[in-house]
Design a protein that fits this description.
The chain contains nine helices and nine strands. The two termini are 33 Å apart. The protein has 242 residues and is α/β, with parallel strands linked by helices. The strands form three sheets. A five-stranded parallel sheet has the order 4-3-5-6-7.
């Protein structure tokens, strides 16, 4: 009887450009990002409503944010909740958390207060990054969750100057009140990074350390955190690119 696994008949159905096996790198997200910045520093990384942001700028801003996180108590393995839409601060935040040695968890704006409370406490989230128009979602559970700091961005952050000024003046850009929360530190994103050093930061992490804590839908009970390692994410990244 033939050994189907030895014969590997499925290889006949691979596209021509897909190799039969892959060579995986032993590089964490932050290490790979550093490599990309060195190669494409002046290439466009993000385009936000007409403004182009280079890899060099994302690198600098994420260094500043990582420095702020570390200065304010983030330790390797601590969890940062990402509660934002697709704005530059979100991407910068993901990179900064990895540089600082942290773990990201996504906080959906669609979570009910009970679901938000559960995820924050179950993940032991220490920092939250949000946007002013979603701030009240966090405020609703502030007295029931153990997070310490909320970093608040705005839709207008990183917009070209004219669009930012006119958008706010003409009320075309949504904004919302940001207020103090008892027992918590609340700081604006731009204020958090202001004055922070832009020196390269790379807290050493292994391929078996966590990169993301992704919560399930919770359809059959409380949502559960799926633990993704640096290795699982970076290997999957290569598979997708290939």
């Amino acid at each position: 009887m033939s050994d189907i696994y030895a014969e590997k008949p499925w290889l006949k159905n691979y596209d021509e450009h897909v190799p039969p096996s892959l060579q995986y790198e032993e590089k964490t997200f932050a290490e790979k990002f550093r490599e990309v910045v060195e190669k494409y520093a002046d290439k466009t990384c993000l385009i936000y409503m007409g403004r182009k942001i280079s890899y060099r700028e994302v690198d600098r801003l994420s260094n500043q944010l990582a420095a702020y996180l570390i200065k304010n108590g983030l330790k390797p393995g601590d969890v940062v909740g990402m509660h934002m839409p697709n704005i530059p601060a979100h991407y910068i935040g993901v990179v900064a958390v990895q540089k600082a040695g942290g773990v990201s968890t996504g906080l959906s704006p669609l979570l009910t207060p009970h679901e938000m409370e559960h995820q924050l406490n179950d993940s032991k989230t220490k920092f939250i990054m949000t946007v002013d128009v979603l701030f009240e979602k966090i405020a609703e559970v502030a007295d029931k969750a153990g997070f310490e700091t909320v970093i608040v961005s705005e839709i207008a952050d990183f917009l070209p100057g004219v669009k930012r000024v006119l958008g706010k003046m003409l009320k075309k850009i949504p904004t919302a009140e940001v207020r103090p929360l008892a027992g918590k530190k609340v700081v604006r994103f731009m204020e958090a990074i202001k004055g922070m050093p832009a020196d390269p930061i790379l807290v050493k992490r292994s391929m078996d350390d966590l990169i993301f804590l992704m919560y399930t839908g919770g359809t059959t009970g409380p949502s559960k955190g799926a633990m993704l390692t640096q290795r699982s994410y970076m290997n999957n990244r290569l598979q997708v690119l290939t």
